[in-house]
Write a structure and sequence with these properties.
About 30% of the residues lie in helices and about 40% in strands. The protein is an alpha+beta fold and about 90 residues long. It has 2 domains: about 35 residues, no CATH class; about 55 residues, no CATH class. The longest helix is centred in the middle third of the chain and has 10 residues. It is flat, with a radius of gyration of 14 Å. It starts with a helix and ends in a 5-residue tail after the last strand.
Length: about 90
């Protein structure tokens, strides 16, 4: 969340999965994220979290976060799901 919130998109790519890095170069990832219309709201953390283990190598995380719309500067709490996969050495 922090790399996304603070615009550290190259760092976000570095900690992404091998599969994600196969599809997007670091520069492509940064450019896509910079064009995005939303980001985690400044000063807000994950408000609620639920982790469901789906296998020994993966888990689905439901998180409620404050999301700021860059165009309107409004913040709304939303629920997003994230898939985490364990990779060797990560």
């Amino acid at each position: 969340m922090e790399p996304w919130a603070f615009g550290e998109f190259r760092r976000l790519w570095e900690i992404s999965s091998d599969e994600s890095r196969f599809y997007y170069t670091q520069n492509d990832c940064a450019a896509l994220m910079e064009r995005g219309s939303a980001r985690p709201a400044a000063g807000r953390r994950v408000e609620d979290l639920k982790v469901s283990v789906t296998s020994p190598q993966s888990a689905v995380v439901l998180a409620r976060i404050g999301l700021e719309d860059r165009n309107t500067h409004t913040t709304l709490p939303i629920v997003r799901s994230f898939l985490f996969c364990h990779e060797l050495g990560r």
